[in-house]
From TrEMBL:
The lineage of its organism: Bacteria, Pseudomonadati, Bacteroidota, Flavobacteriia, Flavobacteriales. Residues 30-127 form the Thioredoxin-like fold domain. This is Thioredoxin family protein. Transmembrane segments: none annotated. The keyword Acyltransferase does not apply. Keywords: Signal. Residues 1-19 form the signal peptide. It comes from the Bacteria. It comes from Chryseobacterium daecheongense. InterPro entries: Thioredoxin-like_fold, Thioredoxin-like_sf. Pfam families: Thioredoxin_2 (PF13098).
Length: 147
């Protein structure tokens, strides 16, 4: 009987672990390691400002260093249109849920800086005016204030 109960509990636990979203994992990691979360809504294959944002900020060493330095967890909620770039149904569902919660207006690109509880600390609508260095400095400054 103990074996059956143990197997059942293990199965339920396994389902729960796999059901966790990227955002849930990012929140837990942010809480455990005192990080912030950068959530970016983009249309990677149709939104020109989104493409520029990724090229000029997200894909830079300055931004990547924020993750390396344990300042942020980065999540990209992408909404591609081209058939060849389509996401898995699970990823589409997760991105839609994030959009419902954080991007009701459907802005692209739209970037949010969140604490580990999901509270919005800062938002950027459209392509930020700052370069990568200034963008990252702003995040670091907010991180230092939250410490």
């Amino acid at each position: 009987m103990k074996t059956i109960i143990s197997a059942f509990l293990w199965a339920v636990f396994s389902i729960f672990v796999h059901a966790q979203s990227r955002f849930d994992k990012a929140q837990k990691d942010a809480a455990d390691h005192h990080k912030l979360i950068v959530l970016n809504f983009s249309g990677s294959d149709w939104c020109v400002p989104c493409i520029k944002l990724h090229k000029n900020i997200i894909d830079t060493e300055n931004f990547k260093q924020l993750s390396t330095d344990n300042v942020i967890n980065y999540i990209n909620a992408d909404f591609p249109r081209n058939k060849k770039n389509q996401l898995s149904p699970e990823m589409k569902k997760e991105n839609a849920l994030l959009a419902d919660q954080y991007n009701a207006k459907g802005l692209f690109p739209y970037t949010l800086l969140l604490d580990s509880q999901g509270k919005i600390l800062k938002t950027w609508e459209g392509l930020p005016a700052e370069n990568a260095s200034a963008f990252c400095k702003e995040i670091k400054d907010i991180y230092q204030q939250k410490k």
